[in-house]
Amino acid sequence: MPVPNPSPLPPLEEVLAALHVVRLPLTVRFRGVTEREAVILAGPREHAEFSPFLEYGDAEAAAWLRCALEAGWHGFPDPLRTEIPVNATVPAVAPDAVESVLARYGPGGPHTVKVKVAERGQTLHDDVARLAEVRRLAPSAALRVDANGGWGHDEALTALEALAGFGLQYAEQPVPGVVPLAELRAELVRRGLPVPIAADEAVRKEADPLAVARLGAADVIVIKAQPLGGVRAALDIVAAAGLPAVVSSALDTSVGTRVGAALAAALPALPYACGLGTVALFGEDVTADRYVPRNGSLDLRRIAADPELLQRHRAPAERRAWWAERVRRCHERLVNAASPAVQADAPK
Ligand SMILES: O=C(O)CCC(=O)C1=CC=C[C@@H](O)[C@@H]1C(=O)O
Ligand SMILES: [Mg+2]
């Protein structure tokens, strides 16, 4: 993605000297995993996170490093607000597990809940049952669903017809890709089905994050700081797209979630609750001051990793070496992509 590097790019030696690798358990399976590995960088400005999913290649992961180096070495843009409304996220669990997930969002419950649907191996019946349980437990919450592109066009129409009765705020990435999303959105409008569309993967995994806006594929874009190459790059995408944006996590620790909050705080408009409540799904974290919502919102306090917790959750030596090597390769990509002026500060 053609976004500028943090300028100047810190030299690799400095980045590696700031590196900690942790492995943290989740309390519930999410995105097929029950533990999360992450690099925490003790940068001179902020603590920052580099945690591309393990299966991602270097080209994609380099954008995540760009985000970490921007946050750690250059800090955050000035905030325009100090409270970020946040949604609860319910993974594709059985109905009887919904209550314990929602309980993690504190007394009074969340005002907005995102429910994962279209999980491989499950059926529409499972999705309806999960949504019904969420609605029972949170009668006045706004509900949204996220299919992660798990439906085809016809399947999505059937599913959204069945789920529209829940009064969905929006359906996130019901089908994969940009053009299929645009076709589905047009068909929903044609049928008079009142389900707005949000684009997630169609923004963060496509070569051109603005194609969604150009093709009218969505009503809302979901933006994530790490995959989009940092807070400033994501702000630029929102400005160019001209669509309402929802900031969402990349299943980050408290440190990475704080970067997402910095992005949400700097957006000119924030009409929807953000998907930054996923620290609640972690069994352990890198700070005792866990970055979880209070009364449905995150405040903009400083979040720093605790050295004792970094040590306690340190990943095994072989994993630490794997991550250091991944950082090295991604850093090399950023150096090679940088302009000559930026490269002046990078190792030769
Ligand atoms: O947006 C939220 O409510 C929580 C974050 C979330 O859903 C995700 C985090 C990390 C990886 C993604 O598969 C997933 C998403 O699709 O948005
Ligand atoms: Mg999503």
From TrEMBL:
Keyword Magnesium: yes
Catalytic residues of the enzyme: K116, K224
NCBIfam families found in the cross-reference section: PRK02901.1
Function: Converts 2-succinyl-6-hydroxy-2,4-cyclohexadiene-1-carboxylate (SHCHC) to 2-succinylbenzoate (OSB).
Record carries keyword Lyase: yes
Classification of source organism: Bacteria, Bacillati, Actinomycetota, Actinomycetes, Micrococcales
Keywords annotated in UniProt: Lyase, Magnesium, Menaquinone biosynthesis, Metal-binding
Source species: Zhihengliuella alba
Enzyme Commission number(s): 4.2.1.113
Identification of the protein by name: o-succinylbenzoate synthase
Cofactor(s) the protein needs: a divalent metal cation
Positions of the Mandelate racemase/muconate lactonizing enzyme C-terminal domain: 95-191
UniProt pathway annotation: Quinol/quinone metabolism; 1,4-dihydroxy-2-naphthoate biosynthesis; 1,4-dihydroxy-2-naphthoate from chorismate: step 4/7; Quinol/quinone metabolism; menaquinone biosynthesis
Binding site for Mg(2+): D146, E172, D200
CDD domains: OSBS
InterPro entries (alphabetical): Enolase-like_C_sf, Enolase_C-like, Mandelate_racemase_C, OSB_synthase_MenC1
Entry similarity comment: Belongs to the mandelate racemase/muconate lactonizing enzyme family. MenC type 1 subfamily.
Chemical reaction(s) catalysed: (1R,6R)-6-hydroxy-2-succinyl-cyclohexa-2,4-diene-1-carboxylate = 2-succinylbenzoate + H2O
SMART domains in the record: MR_MLE (SM00922)
Residues spanning the membrane: none
